[in-house]
Amino acid sequence: MGRQLDQQSDLIIRRVQPGEVNAAAEIEKSSLKDKTPWSESELSLFVKNPSGVYLGAFLKEKLVGVGGCYIGGGECVITNIAVSQDFRRKKAASLLLGGLIDIAKANGAKKAFLEVGGTNHPAIRLYAGFGFEKRGVRKGYYKGGDAFIMSLELD
User: Fold this and answer.
1) Where are the beta strands (DSSP E) in the chain?
2) What is the pLDDT of residue 4?
3) How far apart are CA 53 and CA 109, in angstroms?
4) What's the CA gap between 11 and 106, in Å, rounded?
5) Torsion of CA 145, 87, 37, 134, to 10 degrees
6) What 8-state DSSP symbol labels residue 12?
7) What is the mean pLDDT of each run of 10 residues along the chain (155 residues)?
8) Do residues 75 and 111 make contact, with C-beta atoms less than 8 angstroms apart?
9) In this predicted structure, what is the pLDDT of residue 1?
């Protein structure tokens, strides 16, 4: 098991660079059980997309978590947050989500949306803790069941 993080400052949140996409794809693959993870080629396109934001949580030089969103038309769509097993419950997901929200606000987004597996209780708690509210359900959307649609006003 990974070492316990003592402070949030141990993690650095920054944009994932094209040369780090392979490590990001591995985190996605190992973390996203009810969703189809993004492939390395999809992530390569995502990090180059001017409407996309793909952040990484780094402990020293090691990528331990990722989170992405698209921003446009006054909205932010959170695409995913994935954290390596050894670094869960150590603030990485919160720091990634907070970073995405801050960037979205700075780029004029007034509302954020996401969808989350209905049985992914840790993620639902994370999003609710930031003020996201459940707005709808997509029945049978994921392999593991339904998806909840959640949103957050950013003003």
Assistant:
1) 11-15, 52-59, 62-72, 75-83, 111-117, 133-142, 145-153
2) 39
3) 13
4) 22
5) 40
6) E
7) 45 93 88 71 88 93 94 95 84 94 96 92 94 94 87 93
8) yes
9) 27
- What's the residue count for the chain? 155
Question: At which residue do the structure tokens 């949306």 appear?
Answer: 113
In the beta sheet, which residues pair with residue 53? 69
The pTM of the full predicted model, rounded to 2 decimals, is 0.88
The per-residue pLDDT for range 11-53, each reduced to its tens digit, is: 899 999 999 999 999 898 887 665 677 788 888 888 889 889 9
Do the Cβ atoms of 69 and 100 come closer than 8 Å? yes
Domains of the chain: 8-153 (3.40.630.30)
Q: Residue 108 corresponds to which tokens in the numbers above?
A: 């004029």
Evaluate whether 83 touches 57 at the Cβ level (below 8 Å).
yes
Output the DSSP codes for 5-35.
Answer: P--GGGEEEEEPPGGGHHHHHHHHHHH-SSS
